[in-house]
From TrEMBL:
Superkingdom field: Bacteria
Protein name: Glycosyltransferase
Start and end residues of each Glycosyl transferase family domain: 211-356
GO molecular function: glycosyltransferase activity
Keyword terms, alphabetized: Glycosyltransferase, Transferase
Pfam assignment, any one: Glycos_transf_1
Entry-linked PANTHER family: SULFOQUINOVOSYL TRANSFERASE SQD2 (PTHR45947)
Amino acid sequence: MTSVEDARPVADVTGVPPLAGRSVAVVHEWFSAAGGSENVFLAIAELLPHARRYVLWAERDAPARDLGLRESWLARTALRRSKALALPVMPLAWRTLSRDPFDVVVSSSHAFAHTVRLGPPERTRHLSYVHSPARYVWSPTVDGRGSSPLLRAPRRALQAADLRLSRHVHAYAANSVEVRDRIQRYWKRDAVVIHPPVDVDFYATPAGPEQPREYLLGVGRWIPYKNFDLMISIAAAAGLPLVIAGAGPEEARLRRAASRVGVPITFELRPSRDRLRELYQGARALLFPAHEDFGIIPVEAQAAGTPVIGLRSGGLLETVVDGETGFLVPSTRAADHAAAVRRVGELSAARIREHARSFARERFAARMSGWIADECR
């Protein structure tokens, strides 16, 4: 371990009564400063305050020590700089994470964290919350990053390893129906659906005087499958300004595309949480023309009373009520999304905010703690 020295786990009282007096570990893939899966991991850790917290590595800007994160040996290698190159050795890293056995392990997994083994199956109860079976490995067509030539050869071997090394998992939870169906399809396992937590109270709190909502908004990491280039085309077709908030490797290409359209395109690089709330509350609509497993950003926007215009697929089928809190479009034609933008005046901001409350943090805490308690009695 690289963050603190290893020691025997200490059994202590946790926030889930059936785990009182039992040793507990919570594990997660890599940890960056801000991200949806990291927020889920921290929410799980809050329910289990005396659990050990393990990650493969923490990014340099993540407060690893403040959060008590223990990193694997991968953190001391150059592989931490390339998730694609690190994938083939991740199962080994999880199997050599710690020599200490635990009574209960809760993994937060979007790659191979669910293969971690911290004790024999007959003693250790392993529950896994899944953001998605590794998309690089199982569904590369969903996320174009998985189509890298570096992954083509080892993909079949990684699929076999993923299945073989996860047989000891006792129960799965999925962050959406989309992911539950993927778990069934790829792993032949059942899962309960527990939607991730969203801080709806924060995004519903007015950031200042009410704004005129004159622009469209796109939020997220600037990578190909998020379709920010399509958002630019939608804004041009709708004749409205667009604000693009986030960061990522597509920045230069997106700026070139923005320079070729006849509407103002503004780039907000790595906005703070407070600034993001302002952007949500000032937007006419959030554009989200991407296929996501769940999608926390659309829920945040709805908490601010902002409707969502997105693809009729994936997690949006669970987070957006078509015709009430936004419009779901069955195509990637900019004109179709622009037509939906013109209809947002039909929607009620109060109804949109009300719907977002069904994804509040307290809902997640109740569902997650109940699931853990039921599986560990």
